[in-house]
Hints:
Low-confidence stretches: none
Structural class: mainly alpha
Number of strands: 0
Mean pLDDT: 77
Helix content: 40-55%
Radius of gyration: 46 Å
Shape: flat
Strand content: under 5%
Amino acid sequence: MKSYGDIDSKFRFVIVATKRAKELLGGAKPKIKSKSKNPIRIAQNEVSQGLIDFEILKPKEEEEVVPKEEVFIGEEIKEAAKVEKEKEVPKEKKKVIEKKEEKKKKVEKKAQPKAKEKPKVAKEKPKVAKEKPKAAKKKKK
């Protein structure tokens, strides 16, 4: 089994080495001398030797979401209907709105292209050349 220094798992090793490699790519100076010029390899060597410090953060505890109050949905719908009734439009305005909608429909119908009708062409009967009866042979005189 490979040794990852003082790191408990290979997954954590990869994460720490990745962050260190990003630092090296950003211009940080390496903490070790290495034959390799690859910043990823240098970062791996630094982490495996234990030269890189890291901290494991504890996950935050999630707060439980407690519903305020359970309400039957039907009651909310009734209340919404009451509010809508209060906001009803007077009959005069309804008529004006209906007229505008009718005008829009008429304009839309006019704007729609009509289906082109195919011109009616009278079907001509095919002309068949009728053979004329051959003239009777001339009688010899």
